[in-house]
Structures are given as structure tokens and as C-alpha cells.
Design brief:
Helix content is about 35%, strand content about 30%. With about 230 residues, the chain is α/β, with parallel strands linked by helices. It has a single domain, classed as P-loop containing nucleotide triphosphate hydrolases (Rossmann fold), CATH 3.40.50.300. The protein has a 6-stranded mixed sheet, with helices on both faces. It has a 4-stranded antiparallel sheet with strand order 2-1-4-5, with helices on one face. The structure holds adenosine-5'-triphosphate.
Length: about 230
């Protein structure tokens, strides 16, 4: 599904260039659960931004489902992003003035669905993340762990090709982190959801079936995790 070939990325800082992604070659198949670990500044977020069709200013090739997308226009790219990727962030990024239902329905409405059509699909997604009775609440009425469940529901509601989770447990205590990771694991095992997860936390990374380590902009190891 995902195929990065010789990807290099540079940030321009005035006159100097910073080489943030170094010759990245990476293939990820549908259904995988991949953890990406590396120290702060290693380039994890930069890599996620390339993988999630947010950043296209890189050298090399990104083939997605066999197609190279570097020549498509910005509007098509953003449609591809909306349809193909579900994002989960460390700080949830929910819209505080909207209800949980309104937060989770957004990817479906972007895809052209009516609110009436979206509602049962949203309720099913909330059920999957263990929040069956929260649709009319607002994010502030929920705990951090519950808000992250809402963010996961929003990320999966439109059945994207893959979910990108950037430090999804970074703001949570260890018990809540385990609960959140159990949801990702269940989605991966029961629904075949492809999960790409960035974390600093070794215990969190162990939920994945494959562990990629990135150091100084380069992939330094990439291996299946023994069970
Ligand atoms: N827009 C930018 N312009 C210049 N340098 C940047 C920019 N964004 C990131 N960097 C630098 O690139 C390096 C990698 O950043 P990146 O955010 O990808 O790392 P990371 O592994 O995600 O780190 P963290 O775990 O702290 O989030 C860092 O040294 C950072 O300072």
C-alpha cells in the first residue's frame, strides 16, 4: 500500500539546509500495525507528514496503492488525504464547541454524506471505541482518555486506508495508555485497520507487530516483533 523510495527531505534555515529525512525506503502493507520509535528530533513527525500526504516537499518517490502522487494537484491531494488517512494526535485536537457526534461525523461530511446518513455510522464508531453514550456531550465533559477515544472514532469512522497516530498516549497516564493501545490493537486485529504509530514509549511500541527505529533522519532498524 505505502511505498517510499529514496525519500530525502531538507528544511531550509536561512542559508543552510537541514537534512531531516535521509534516504528513507519503506513499504507498508494493508493490515500492518507498525510502531515507529526514535529520540526527539529524529524526524518522526517529518516522516508522518510525508506519509499522511501533508508534506509533499520532499525528494524521492511516494507510491500509494501503486500510484505515484507527486504530480497530482493540491485539491486532489487533500481529497486523497481525507479519504485515505485517519489522524490521531497527542493532544486529541477535538473541536471544543462541538458535540462528540459533530466531531466524529466530520470526515463523513467531508466525504459528501448527509448528517442523517452519518449519524448511525458515528454511533457505531463510538461503540467500537467504548463510548456508547457520549454523542451529545462536549469534549470538556470527558476525561483525557475518553477524548482520545473520540479522536480514534473520528479517525476510523470513514474507514480510511490507514491510521496515523502521533504519540497518541503522550498526554495520558500509563493505565489509560494501555486502554487506548488495546483499542488500536483490537481495531487492527478485528477490523484489519492499518495502524502506523509514533511513540517514545517502548511499552506502547510493543503493541505493534513491526518496529521501525529512526535515528538522525534515517531508518536504523526495521523488524517484525516476536510474539
Ligand atoms: N519547519 C521546520 N524548519 C526547520 N527545521 C525543522 C522544521 N520542523 C522540524 N525541524 C527540525 O527537524 C528535526 C526533526 O523534527 P521532527 O519534528 O520531525 O522530529 P521528531 O522525531 O518528531 O521529534 P519529537 O519526538 O520531538 O516530536 C528537528 O531537529 C527539528 O528541529
Amino acid at each position: 500500500m505505502i511505498n517510499l523510495k529514496n525519500v530525502n527531505k531538507y528544511y531550509q534555515n536561512g542559508d543552510s539546509q537541514f537534512h531531516v529525512l535521509k534516504n528513507i525506503n519503506l513499504s507498508i502493507d494493508s493490515g500492518e500495525f507498525v510502531s515507529i520509535m526514535g529520540p526527539s528530533g529524529a524526524g518522526k513527525t517529518s516522516l508522518i507528514n510525508v506519509l499522511g500526504f501533508i508534506d509533499r516537499s520532499f525528494e524521492g518517490e511516494y507510491q500509494f496503492d501503486g500510484q505515484s502522487y507527486d504530480t497530482i494537484d493540491d485539491r486532489t491531494l487533500s481529497r486523497l488525504r481525507n479519504q485515505s488517512v485517519g489522524f490521531v494526535f497527542q493532544n486529541f485536537k477535538l473541536i471544543q464547541n462541538n458535540t462528540i457526534l459533530e466531531n466524529v461525523e466530520l470526515p463523513l461530511l467531508y466525504g459528501g454524506m448527509s448528517k442523517r446518513e452519518a449519524k448511525p455510522i458515528v454511533l457505531e464508531a463510538l461503540e467500537k471505541v467504548g463510548l456508547p453514550n457520549s454523542a451529545t456531550k462536549i469534549p470538556n465533559e470527558l476525561s483525557g482518555g475518553q477524548q482520545q477515544r473520540v479522536a480514534i472514532a473520528r479517525a476510523i469512522v470513514h474507514k480510511p486506508k490507514f491510521v496515523l497516530a502521533d504519540e497518541p498516549t503522550g498526554a495520558l497516564d500509563s493505565k489509560t495508555s494501555s486502554e487506548i493501545m488495546a483499542i488500536f490493537k483490537k481495531l487492527n486485529e478485528d477490523e484489519g485497520t492499518t495502524v502506523l504509530l509514533v511513540t517514545h514509549d517502548k511499552r506502547v511500541s510493543e503493541y505493534g507487530d513491526r518496529l521501525i527505529t529512526i535515528f538522525d533522519g534515517a531508518i536504523t532498524s526495521d523488524k517484525q516483533v516476536e510474539v
